Amino acid sequence: MHKYFIVFLCLLVALFITFTPSEDTFVLDSPLSGGDTTVFNTSREAFAKPAPNLSVEDLRKFTFGNKMFNTNWVTAPASVTSLDGLGPTFNRVSCSGCHFKDGRGRPPKDRQEAMASMLIRLSVVGQDKFGGPKPHPHYGGQLNDRSILSVPVEGRAEVTYEEVPGVYPDGETYSLRHPIYTFKDLKFGSLDDALFSPRVAPVVYGMGLLEAIPEETILSFSDIDDVDGDGISGRPNRVWSPTKNKEALGRFGWKANAVTVEEQSAGAAVGDIGITTSLNKNQNCPDIQKSCQNAKHGGVPEMSDMQLDRMVFYLQTLAVPARRHLDDPNVQAGAKLFVKAKCSSCHRPTMKTGDHALKQVAFQDIQPFTDLLLHDMGEGLADHRPDFQANGREWRTPPLWGIGLVKTVNRHTTLLHDGRARNLEEAILWHGGEAQSSKQSFMKMNKDERRQLITFLESL
């Protein structure tokens, strides 16, 4: 009897070893980043394709939503009343103006170039009635650097950089660029009292899948008190949801300050383009901006619920590009280094979506490389601007799926919330706070290993 018990115990140990992943284990057998919504496309259109699992009727809705996303809004009154109401102050005339080809924005190349796919969030100390950032009394929630005729532009921001040199333990040197922002041509007083945060436009594909991840899955990643002692204590952002009429889990935006794709889209419409919806019926016209308040509008709301619904459907069903080069030995080695450096503690490779109103994104095995939680990223990346429960050092873990195609689609490689990193290597080197240990692990790798980890990220 004793002999059989020993055999049984050995079998249990063997099973445990077989099914318990080590730090060297990484799933590299599936290119399907977005499950059934994955598209195999590596062209400049890689981020702009419909999910393959859409029906003919779905594709009609997708096409209409695509039109809403790409159409330029015009000043009211206009002959096309369904697309008028631009401004009075705004940043761009369309959604795609910032999210070019549904991809990632960048900062200006020099002081002479305007912010084309980037903006400046504004607030002052305190909270609004919903617990969010308190808008600046003269400029509102963001600096609008464009306006319609007869309405003054609020002002503009310029960014310059100072180089911050560094050296790896193996002697190789690097240099990071630290951004410095100045405000010019301000029409309604200084911004000396403002809390400001530069933001580049993020990619917009895969949003429906992120929305479909069960809340309990996201919360299971949280370790607010760092009970396991790994130095990582991600936490959720709880924000006000106008559609739910209560506080809820934030998922979208650089600080996870929007609950649903609909709320994120409606917020961008009024903030970036000056287009009202049933969720945001008031223009961004502070009391001091009389010309803005008196300007003609395109009705209330300017974007109909049907138009908003179609645009949201478009964003929810944009395909996720497939992973590439899974058989490349450097990609496989880089994946193991990614896990060994504990990058995967926040950029979680895999999870499963749950039930959702759109069956196309429900119950999918996906590889988003995010936990959708807030993490303290250190003083180097801090904007010192709270956003609901997110403090000035915390940022949501951005998904990494498709990151290797940004250069192809958007013709640049700048990364992080303000685009300061010129490439993946610099983005890693800016990590601090909870990610300090992972950054140090990357720095201690030899040159070939660092290149392998970057090669892995480029394969996503």
Can you walk me through this structure?
This protein has 460 residues and is of the alpha+beta class. It has one domain (35-458). 26% of the residues lie in helices and 15% in strands. It is built from 12 helices and 15 strands. A hairpin with a 5-residue loop joins β6 and β7. The longest helix has 18 residues, at 2-19. The radius of gyration is 23 Å and the shape is globular. Residues 1-25 have low confidence and may be disordered.
Indicate the low-confidence ranges by residue numbers.
1-25
Q: Which sheet architecture does the biggest sheet show?
A: 3 strands, antiparallel
Q: Can you list the strand order of the major beta sheet?
A: 4-3-8
SSE topology string: HEHEEEEEEEHHEEHHHEHEEEEHHHH
Helical run tally: 12
Total DSSP E strands: 15
Globally, the shape reads: globular
Instruction: Give the overall average pLDDT.
Output: 94
Indicate the percent of residues in helices: 25-40%
